[in-house]
UniProtKB/TrEMBL annotation:
Name of the protein in question: Cytochrome P450
InterPro entries from the UniProt entry: Cyt_P450, Cyt_P450_B, Cyt_P450_CS, Cyt_P450_sf
Species of the source: Streptomyces cyaneofuscatus
Similarity-based family: Belongs to the cytochrome P450 family.
Stored Gene3D superfamilies: Cytochrome P450
UniProt cross-references to Pfam families, sorted A to Z: p450 (PF00067)
Top-level taxon: Bacteria
Keywords: Heme, Iron, Metal-binding, Monooxygenase, Oxidoreductase
């Protein structure tokens, strides 16, 4: 099958609404070769749900980024803490990192954090009043997860806003220099933080606990820095978009919003459908084929990047009938917003708890909230990896 002539994931219309593009590509073929960038390179894009689920668990699709780019010319300058995270590794390296990261987000640990999450949300919304215009992104969905992750890591409160800015820049799709510079700011900052914790082993701060966990899990100093970087970057960017996308989806589907307004206890069960409907992860992080394989009837040669698109898979009509409709009664537990397999997001329980608390606050305290501007005037982040709003102006009600 002939590949598209231009990268469909770089079209400005894709950033505003990727779903028509995904639909066209999936209807043509759920696994197909597409151009990436402007250098004549190609990748394979997976847009079908069963194909994406299969690809997430295929060991022939490696996440070892360093292995793929070894010996290839590149003008990129990412900090190693960003380029060599758990997300860019395979077992056994990935297994060691995962063993340390997973206990941070167990159901019990997240349950213990819920009172703190509530206090943070209450503090962020303390000045909110009916009739007031607020930006949900700037005032709630962005500061909430960065506050939680920084609290877990012991990042001083005075540094958190700057760290959030660097993380935001790391997802800039328009300027690789901005991305590379942000990676070094994050990596250098966390290296200093980890070195300080390692130099004072008797202290009992949150980062000291993580450092001890890393040492017991056979992670060295650089691997500890990379894990801290991953927790901050992945732990707040996607949750910010999860909350923003969920609120927008509810406001654009008044019948669904009414369901939650009448019974806020439905919110936990609604989260999967909200994640499915507008996934905060549009295209999963980098994978490459280590040998020839076939997925969905399409042959993928060894040595090619493979892009799995949860945003597309979650709107596959063969798996989720009427996928563009937000249906809170739908069984959406098979969505792929958190990934699947050994790389499934370990922070999913914390993200769900944060989103649940934010939505409960909105529907109980401000049940008549509405958009402050037309939905088609909203500005979306220009990145294909994540799907999220730059701002979400609301009139509280």
């Amino acid at each position: 099958m002939t590949a598209p002539r231009q990268d469909p994931l770089r079209d400005p219309r894709f950033f505003t609404d990727p779903y028509p593009t995904y639909d066209r590509l999936r209807e043509r073929c759920p696994v197909q070769r597409i151009p990436t960038g402007s250098g004549g390179h190609h990748a394979y894009l997976i847009t079908g749900h069963p194909e994406a689920r299969e690809a997430f668990t295929d060991p022939r699709l490696s996440k070892d980024t360093a292995r793929f780019f070894a010996g290839r010319p590149s003008d990129r300058d990412l900090h190693p803490a960003i380029s060599r995270t758990m997300l860019a590794s395979d077992p056994p390296t990935h297994t060691r990192h995962r063993r340390v990261a997973t206990p941070l987000f167990t159901t019990g640990r997240v349950r213990a954090l819920r009172p703190y999450i509530t206090r943070v949300v209450d503090g962020l919304t303390k000045a909110w009043r009916p009739g007031k215009e607020v930006d949900l992104v700037a005032e709630l969905s962005l500061p909430l997860p960065i506050t939680l992750i920084c609290e877990l890591l012991g990042v001083p409160e005075s540094d958190r806003a700057e760290l959030a800015t660097w993380s935001h820049d790391l997802f800039d799709a328009t300027d690789t220099d901005i991305v590379d510079a942000a990676s070094h700011r994050i990596g250098d900052y966390l290296t200093d933080l980890v070195d300080t914790a390692r130099a004072t082993p008797g202290d009992d701060g949150p980062l000291h606990s993580l450092v001890r966990d890393c040492e017991e899990g056979d992670l060295d100093r650089d691997e500890t820095v990379s894990l801290a970087a991953l927790l901050i970057v992945a732990g707040h960017e996607t949750t910010t978009h999860f909350i923003g996308n969920a609120v927008l989806a509810l406001l654009r589907h008044p019948e669904a919003y009414d369901q939650l307004r009448r019974d806020p206890d439905l919110i936990p069960g609604a989260l999967d459908e909200l994640l499915r409907h507008d996934s905060p992860v549009s295209v999963a992080t980098f994978r490459h084929s280590t040998e020839d394989l076939s997925i969905g009837g399409t042959d993928i040669p060894a040595g090619f990047p493979v892009l799995i698109a949860p945003g597309a898979a979650n709107r596959d009509p063969a798996h989720f009938p009427h996928p563009d409709h937000l249906d809170l009664d739908r069984d959406a537990t098979g969505h792929l917003a958190f990934g699947h397999g050994i790389h499934r997001c370990p922070g999913a329980p914390l993200a769900r708890a944060e989103a649940e608390t934010a939505l409960r606050t909105l529907v109980t305290r401000f049940p008549n909230t509405r958009l402050a501007i037309p939905a088609d005037s909203l500005t979306w982040r220009r990145t294909r990896l994540t799907r999220g709003l730059a701002t979400l102006p609301l009139i509280l009600g």
